[in-house]
């Protein structure tokens, strides 16, 4: 077989350099955002060059309207500090709980994996090649535990950095909105890019360093090395689960409470400073939509990389110790950082936003440009980093694969992600008929709105599932389970751009809230609302792609688990497998029930507290008294920390219990069932919630004649739309996004514990 064109030495240089370029680019974007000063009198400072770039001259609307500029900036800074302090306080408390879990689970990993060979320090025959000796099981236990801790810490860091960036940028976006929608857009987008590039680069760099450090001990035992590395993916996703569920409960409890009392009962605007839940709502955007999402996407990236590396280590790449070909997944991610960097420059420096209607197309251009450029990048990496022909492990056999076939696997995943994204946009954007039909159904009340929204969500599953199915068929046909793993990596290869677009939404949402609370002009609020509406749609696109990649990742991990557990076939006609299949299909419903009820319980307390304050604080409705924001923040914090534990335990304990008591065949059925049902529920839940949210915004914006006939704010159709939105909030921001972590996490956990389950599992059937 012909060796790869790219030498091992050059590979060892290129991967960390790409990661460092990503980090430097993120810091440059941060510096540009920091030039927007949060002190009075700076509005006409460094940024004011009297140009008309982005369609607006630099004069301030406040000056034109005679509003005191110093007062506005001070208010914005004060609100920003309150949001930042609330988010930081919550995350530190949440991370204390997660730290306890991290230590306990690390001990479980060590004890379970160490007991496979009774904590022996002697070398053992390799799993896939008995003629060769590999490192002892105790080493696998120790290094799996270390990589789990590294993955956990990187996941936590990803979420925390994202939150700090978002709370730093929200008020700056508000202040820039005074100069025009283009200025505000660029500030929000640059801030999102900081998070995107830091996460992608940190994830790649930590994984690369971990592999090289572990290699010092493992030497030529690449099978053992990359089996231990799977703990990195497990750590990333386990932290993401608690972050997503805890953050989701926090943000939606506050959001539902604020909307139901504020909009429906008291008929006051969204983010009105008189609403006691308004600070908690804005804090929630940062801990749920930003920190939770950051950890979630880091987990997906870590797991897809680990799944590909595990399969590669038992293929010709690992057997022949071809380092460059082995690092193919990392080289794809490195190319992704460079491609996303070029793509970001199109949004910030090449295309100018001159009007509100150009915001959403600009964000969509980001997705298209990054996908097209990444396709070229994948082709380059595939032809220089891979031999022209090689073999891939395929359930006990070695399948001969060409480098162009692997290129197609990654490309099909990349383009399937784009298809899923645009189908999601069609079903959740108020520019298209599905959401407009949902808005129209509000004429006859909340019940018909709910019916239309549910139907839309179920229907929106069809095309994404076909896209995932085609990706799986093509990838598996070309390169077996490795093909599916790299297809998932393809879907996530433009993660830096995807995260920038995802983070942009909550930053814009916060900016609108700050504008409202600071008493700024309605024209400023219109601009931030336009940014937020575009962000809502693109966030839905991001969630769609995340769910699609989760399906591919979990299938690749499932394949690796089946191989590692030495299961020859997964036969659904055997009772052991079928009972697992039907129980696994039930788990996403159980999990969703827990998270939905948690949001409902917390929202109930929030509604009661907001009502109490409106009833008992004299002058609150008249704006003469300040509400007690702290009490509402405490309700959300206490509820989310308490309620995130049961769903987390359900996901983390299920594979351990099933594998130990019922064995690997039943566990394989559980994983397959959870994957098949979880993907469907996640897509429909996310899209239903997104459609209800944008149906409400469609009525509020009143851009078309049809929308104006349903409005204005406070009308009966608008109140029906608000109810639909509040029902959809936990669906799109808590249950839906958390489900993709459920299917990935159970699969990667099963893979990490596969040696234990294969040796000691199925206790009930051994009696």
TrEMBL record:
<keyword id="KW-0406">Ion transport</keyword>
<feature type="transmembrane region" description="Helical">
    <location>
        <begin position="13"/>
        <end position="33"/>
    </location>
</feature>
<feature type="transmembrane region" description="Helical">
    <location>
        <begin position="573"/>
        <end position="591"/>
    </location>
</feature>
<feature type="transmembrane region" description="Helical">
    <location>
        <begin position="367"/>
        <end position="386"/>
    </location>
</feature>
<feature type="transmembrane region" description="Helical">
    <location>
        <begin position="184"/>
        <end position="211"/>
    </location>
</feature>
<feature type="transmembrane region" description="Helical">
    <location>
        <begin position="406"/>
        <end position="427"/>
    </location>
</feature>
<keyword id="KW-0812">Transmembrane</keyword>
<keyword id="KW-1278">Translocase</keyword>
<dbReference type="InterPro" id="IPR004131">
    <property type="entry name" value="PPase-energised_H-pump"/>
</dbReference>
<dbReference type="GO" id="GO:0004427">
    <property type="term" value="F:inorganic diphosphate phosphatase activity"/>
</dbReference>
<keyword id="KW-1133">Transmembrane helix</keyword>
<dbReference type="GO" id="GO:0009678">
    <property type="term" value="F:diphosphate hydrolysis-driven proton transmembrane transporter activity"/>
</dbReference>
<dbReference type="Pfam" id="PF03030">
    <property type="entry name" value="H_PPase"/>
</dbReference>
<protein>
    <recommendedName>
        <fullName>H(+)-exporting diphosphatase</fullName>
        <ecNumber>7.1.3.1</ecNumber>
    </recommendedName>
</protein>
<feature type="transmembrane region" description="Helical">
    <location>
        <begin position="97"/>
        <end position="117"/>
    </location>
</feature>
<dbReference type="GO" id="GO:0012505">
    <property type="term" value="C:endomembrane system"/>
</dbReference>
<feature type="transmembrane region" description="Helical">
    <location>
        <begin position="326"/>
        <end position="347"/>
    </location>
</feature>
<feature type="transmembrane region" description="Helical">
    <location>
        <begin position="546"/>
        <end position="567"/>
    </location>
</feature>
<keyword id="KW-0472">Membrane</keyword>
<feature type="transmembrane region" description="Helical">
    <location>
        <begin position="461"/>
        <end position="489"/>
    </location>
</feature>
<dbReference type="GO" id="GO:0016020">
    <property type="term" value="C:membrane"/>
</dbReference>
<keyword id="KW-0813">Transport</keyword>
<feature type="transmembrane region" description="Helical">
    <location>
        <begin position="137"/>
        <end position="163"/>
    </location>
</feature>
<keyword id="KW-0460">Magnesium</keyword>
């Amino acid at each position: 077989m012909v060796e790869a064109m790219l030498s091992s030495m050059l590979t060892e240089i290129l991967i960390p350099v790409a990661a460092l370029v990503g980090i430097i680019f993120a810091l440059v974007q941060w510096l540009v955002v920091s030039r927007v000063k949060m002190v009075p009198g700076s509005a006409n400072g460094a940024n004011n060059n009297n140009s008309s770039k982005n369609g607006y001259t630099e004069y301030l609307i406040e000056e034109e309207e005679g509003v005191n500029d110093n007062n506005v900036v001070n208010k914005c800074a004060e609100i920003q500090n309150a949001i930042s302090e609330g988010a930081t306080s919550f995350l530190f408390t949440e991370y204390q709980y997660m730290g306890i879990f991290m230590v306990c689970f690390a001990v479980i990993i060590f004890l379970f994996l160490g007991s496979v060979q009774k904590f022996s320090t002697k070398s053992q025959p390799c799993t896939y090649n008995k003629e060769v000796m590999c490192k002892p099981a105790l080493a696998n236990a120790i290094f799996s535990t270390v990589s789990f801790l590294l993955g956990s810490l990187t996941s936590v860091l990803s979420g925390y950095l994202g939150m700090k960036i978002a709370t730093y940028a929200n008020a700056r976006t508000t202040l820039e909105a005074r100069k025009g929608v283009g200025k505000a857009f660029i500030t929000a987008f640059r801030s999102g890019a900081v998070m995107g590039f830091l996460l992608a680069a940190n994830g790649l760099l930590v994984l690369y360093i971990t592999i090289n450090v572990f290699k010092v001990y493992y030497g030529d035992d690449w099978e053992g090395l990359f089996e231990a590395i799977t703990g990195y993916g497990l750590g990333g996703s386990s932290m993401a689960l608690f972050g997503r569920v805890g953050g989701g409960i926090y943000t939606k409890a506050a959001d539902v409470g604020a909307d139901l009392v504020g909009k429906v009962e008291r008929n006051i605007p969204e983010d009105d400073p008189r609403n006691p839940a308004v600070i908690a709502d804005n804090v929630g955007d940062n801990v749920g939509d930003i920190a939770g999402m950051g950890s979630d996407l880091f987990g997906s990236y870590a797991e897809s990389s680990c799944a590909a590396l595990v399969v590669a280590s038992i293929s010709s790449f690992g057997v022949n110790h071809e380092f460059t070909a082995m690092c193919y997944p990392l080289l794809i991610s490195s190319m992704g950082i460079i491609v996303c960097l070029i793509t970001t420059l199109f949004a910030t420096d090449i295309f100018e936003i001159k009007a509100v209607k150009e915001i959403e197309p600009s964000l969509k251009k980001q997705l298209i440009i990054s996908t097209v450029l990444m396709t070229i990048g994948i082709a380059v990496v595939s032809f220089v980093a891979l031999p022209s022909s090689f073999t891939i492990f395929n359930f006990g056999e070695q399948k001969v694969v060409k480098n162009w076939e692997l290129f197609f696997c990654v490309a099909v995943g990349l383009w399937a992600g784009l298809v899923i994204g645009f189908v999601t946009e069609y079903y959740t954007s108020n520019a298209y008929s599905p959401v407009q039909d949902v808005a129209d159904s509000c004429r006859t009340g909340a019940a018909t709105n709910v019916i239309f929204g549910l139907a839309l969500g179920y229907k929106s599953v069809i095309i994404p599932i076909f896209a995932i199915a085609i990706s799986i068929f093509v990838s598996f046909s070309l390169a077996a389970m490795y093909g599916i793993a790299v297809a998932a990596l393809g879907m996530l290869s433009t993660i830096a751009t995807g995260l920038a677009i995802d983070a942009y939404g909550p930053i814009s949402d916060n900016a609108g809230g700050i504008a409202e609370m600071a008493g700024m002009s309605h024209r400023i609020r219109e601009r931030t609302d336009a940014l937020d509406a575009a962000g809502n749609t693109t966030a839905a696109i991001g969630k769609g792609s995340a769910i699609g990649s989760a399906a591919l990742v979990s299938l690749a991990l499932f394949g690796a688990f089946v191989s590692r557990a030495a299961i020859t076939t997964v036969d659904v006609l055997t009772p052991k497998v079928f009972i697992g299949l039907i129980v696994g299909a039930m788990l996403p419903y159980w999990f969703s029930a827990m998270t939905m009820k948690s949001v409902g319980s917390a929202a109930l307390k929030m509604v009661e507290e907001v009502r109490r304050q409106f009833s008992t604080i004299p002058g609150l409705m008249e704006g003469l008294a300040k509400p007690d924001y702290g009490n509402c923040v405490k309700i959300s914090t206490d509820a989310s920390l308490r309620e995130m534990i049961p769903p987390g335990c359900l996901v983390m304990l299920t594979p351990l219990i099933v594998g130990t008591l019922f064995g690997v065949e039943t566990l394989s059925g559980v994983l397959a069932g959870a994957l098949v049902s979880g993907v469907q529920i996640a897509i429909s839940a996310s899209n239903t919630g997104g459609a209800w949210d944008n149906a409400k915004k469609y009525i509020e914006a009143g851009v078309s004649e049809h929308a104006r006939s349903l409005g204005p704010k406070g009308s009966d159709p608008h109140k029906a739309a608000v109810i639909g939105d509040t029902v959809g909030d936990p669906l799109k921001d808590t249950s839906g996004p958390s489900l993709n972590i459920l299917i990935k996490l159970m699969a990667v956990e099963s893979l990490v514990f596969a040696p234990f389950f294969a040796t000691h599992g199925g206790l009930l059937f051994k009696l």
